[in-house]
Amino acid sequence: MSKEELLKKRYRAEKRFKFYGLTSVILAILFVLFLVNVIFSKGKGAFSRTTISVEVDFNTEKLELKNNPTNKEIQDTDFYDLSIESLLNVYKTNGLKEEKDLIRIFSPDYEIEIKNFIIENKGFLNKTAIIELTASDDIDQLNKGNYPRHLPEERRRISDFQLLIYDKLVEDNKIQKTFNTFLFTNGDSRDPELAGVGGSLLGSFFTIIVTLLLSFPIAILASIYLEEFAPKNRITDFIEININNLAAVPSIVFGLLGLGILLGTFDFPRSTPLVAGITLALMTLPRIIIPCRASLKAVPPSIREGALAVGASKVQSVTHHVVPLAIPGTLSGTIIGLAQALGETAPLILIGMVAFVVDLPSSPVDPSASLPVQVYLWSEQAERGFVEKTSATIMILLTFLITMNAFAVYLRQKFERRWS
Amino acid sequence: MKKIKIILLAFAAMIFTSTAQARDQIKIVGSSTVYPYATVVAEKFGKGGKFKTPVIESTGTGGGMKLFCAGVGTGHPDITNASRAIKSKEKALCEKNGVKDIVEIVVGNDGITFSHSVKAKDANFTKEQLWRALAAKVDIDGKLVENPYKKWSDIDKGLPSEKIEILIAPPTSGTRDAWNSLVMGKGCTKTAKSLYEADGKKAKKECAKMREDGYAVEAGENDTLIVQKLAANPSAFGFFGYSYLVANKDKIKAAGINGVQPSLEGIQDYSYPIARPLFFYVKKAHIGVVPGIQEFMKEFTSKKSMGSRGYLTDIGLVPLASDKYKTVRTAATDLTTIKIK
In which residue ranges of chain B is CATH 3.40.190.10 found? Predict the structure, then answer.
């Protein structure tokens, strides 16, 4: 082969290599876009909620209420008859079956919604108010265009009569789409239209706080000791190897540890953020220690020597000079470790976080779910409304993860010192 | 620095004071089949406002029994759901750990449907045909051979000439357990059973072994996912609880078994051949210690929840016949315990 040919061949090889590299980058981007697109197109529906306007006549005599009742008196009053009467006024019905059909287009919490309305707006006592009641998930899905209405009646969950009511309500502008605050404030529910991630958000929050409080100080102290004070010998080498090994241990193993020791031996309460936090702290520890040590190592020895030269003790040189310089790297390492812990599901399933919890947790020892587990729980539900709820929860979780990671990057960019 | 210390102390104090308190929330574990019903009752119960909403964990029937039988005291669950009756081994475990008084409540019946996409032609099978389609080994001319059937018509001329494709639940699932005993066990031919016994093997266990040559595909615990797969592929079949059929009847339909379509009535009187009762078990020692247990039992067994017009029927539970219902209701109000030995 002549020299020119060889040269050409090498150029071709370079071109091919560049092409392969570019293709894999593009493929990766396409996969991400596809995934994000699927999640967003499925999940965006969950951020809105369908309501139906209903006229309610708050006649105090009918309700057997005194004038100017207190909140407690209203709370103790039975609103069932009033609610049913108002619901039935929405459309003319004939017979019990049609009445039932009509009531079923509303979410089963109508009585509570009406009661809460009057407690907040006492001015409407003895007056007629128009209240936006939550629609049932079938109507909600129909309104969002996710329900096939052309099927024969026996294959639909919505009856022909309900479709008739729905069309009339749409014509009268009585069906609204509003922002779904329930998604953020409510706990879990078996009615998709009432279910929210409030409980699992709080659960994840408590879990991460416990993880942070445990893992951050321990990891910082351990890495400072190992990096600055510990003698370099076989024992510290052994510890270092094991920290690296621990960081690679699959998370489910830590779940088993939590199950066996925390729940088994120490009888900690099941399904609580406290146990989840401790388990995840164990998992996160090595993952924080490694970047912490790296950032301590990155501080040049001249800083330490300078401090020692002017008479600072070893501790002073570390706490006054080395650690402050290493803080950006330490913090971003911690945040990334916590972000990993936030998205972790497998260990939580083992310690009983896969639970149906309606009440919002008020402390780390109340049972609760967490965001990734909520995704898992809802993906198993039969009701159609949970499909979009699942995707919406993934979106919320992703938002948190991206924010945390972006914050870590920001910390690094802004405060990190380059030593040249 | 001081502030951080105070916050930390407050946090620690909060954790310790609240762990010391007795539990005021009912804890339920157990079957994933009963989970959808138990959660609905729990939510209604919590909205009643007198008690906190019970916490329900879906652990599977076996896992639930293990937790339930681990001991008495607020560290252990109060109730476990089950998609089959408690086994004698589990009773022994309970007794060993001091769980002596257990109340058994039959929740209702559940049917397992053998379903496919609405786009496909209606189908009907016998249990033997289903066994032949799914078993690892079948008997042909008096000999046990590796399952040779590739098309439904290979099993019986009357069946469609289409490739056998069945999505099955994993061995850990309660639905698979029930399917094994109700279909694989019953559909297994006498010849096959006697051949297994002649080999000194347990016929029941061998009959339930499913083929692994690609015609029966394990599709995971997630029934919603199975429904989606069936809707996308009209030639595939799958089995799961009746409630999933009710919730997705625009996408899937059931095949008949011995000519019977699954229906509320058919599952109730067991004329639909793949039906089973569902249970939950209550630790009597916890009643009065954890508030609300008996009230929860009353809510669950009330007519408005598990009665024939109750809200549980809306999501696919098949109510008990009225005489059975009465026994169950009495068990809930009088707390009749079951024999443990």
Answer: 22-109+276-334, 111-275
